[in-house]
Amino acid sequence: MMTQEAPKPVRRILVVEDEPFIAMGLEQLLPRLGYEVSGVATHLRDALAKAEAGGFDLAVLDVNLGGELSYRVADVLLAKGKPFVFCTAYADVAFGRYTHVPVLQKPVEKKALARAIEEALARARPSQVA
Q1: d(CA 56, CA 54)
Q2: What is the pTM of this model?
Q3: Which of 7, 64, 75, 86 has fewest C-beta within 10 Å?
């Protein structure tokens, strides 16, 4: 008699992105990679509220949200022990204390997104993504 392994839990991803086209692209790509989109935040205030509320395993953060940097959201995620990846169209962004965080370049490619998420999840302790 064969026993089946329990299916892996689906990781829930918070998308923080102010450009509708990019956000929609991520919303389409993530399920193809086996992830569920838990929500989308398009403004800093909304992103901060969603980061505080939780309900996700990892976040994809646009660095620049309508002229405001998302580092405050990153700080909340760090304090909560939630892994995240940055997403930016800028090649010369200084990440300071976030140098350990994977960075995606826009436009986001499927393989790069998968690699960045896996890297961020691998660096996280199991209790951070459970």
Answers
A1: 6
A2: 0.88
A3: 7
